[in-house]
Design brief:
The chain is built from 3 helices and no strands. It has about 220 residues and is mostly helical.
Length: about 220
């Protein structure tokens, strides 16, 4: 190797070292920058991925809320229908309540009238019961009088029959007596003729027949 090449190599080596000294900091700075950029890119990608996940969740929640809203609207319509039905039923119930109230007032009025009639009926029943008791008492008195009258009538019948028998017997005896016997016994008819005596006997016989008491059939 020639002496000229040695200084050149040294110069080249020195220049290379100087270049390396100059390039090394730039390369290190470039690596740090690239690392920061990669880290920033990674963070951006993470944020993007998270944003996409949040967006998907938001879309899912939106769909869920839309379904819930649709159900709520359907339920609201159903509830509105129920409310309308209840209002209609309430109107009908009010009409029925008015009718029932009117009927109740009529029933109360009828009940009051019936109660008054019942009071009057009880009063009439009490009067009728009292009258019936009086009638029963009068009936018992009449039955007592009837029994007494029947006993008196039976006694009169017996006496009448006895009197009738006695009268007939006397008339028979008087009829079969002669005028001489009558005059001998000083009869009150001694001054009468026989025809007059017979007429008188017939008259007394008729009177006795009229005085005979005949009991009515079934009496």
């Amino acid at each position: 190797m020639s002496p000229r090449r040695v200084p050149r190599l040294g110069a080249l080596s020195l220049a290379l070292l100087m270049c390396m000294a100059v390039v090394a900091p730039h390369a290190e700075a470039s690596d740090k920058k690239a690392s920061r950029e990669r880290e920033a890119l990674r963070r951006v990608q993470q944020q993007l991925s998270q944003a996409q996940g949040d967006l998907a969740a938001a879309e899912q929640e939106k769909a869920t809320l839309a379904a819930d809203l649709e159900k709520a609207q359907a339920s609201s319509k159903a509830e509105a229908g129920k409310v309308a039905s209840l209002q209609h039923g309430l109107g009908t119930s009010k009409q029925q309540l008015t009718a029932v109230t009117s009927e109740l007032a009529q029933v109360k009025e009828t009940l009051a009238t019936t109660a008054q009639q019942l009071v009057e009926t009880r009063k009439t029943l009490a009067e009728t019961t009292q009258t019936l008791q009086q009638t029963e008492a009068e009936k018992r008195n009449l039955e007592t009088v009837k029994a007494s009258n029947e006993r008196d009538i039976a006694s009169c019948e017996r006496k009448n029959l006895a009197l009738y028998g006695l009268g007939r017997s006397l008339m028979d005896r008087f009829e079969h007596k002669s005028c001489g016997e009558i005059l001998a016994e000083k009869e009150p008819f001694s001054g009468l003729k026989k025809v007059e005596t017979e007429n008188l006997m017939e008259e007394y016989r008729d009177k006795l027949d009229e005085q005979k008491l005949v009991k009515a059939p079934g009496g």
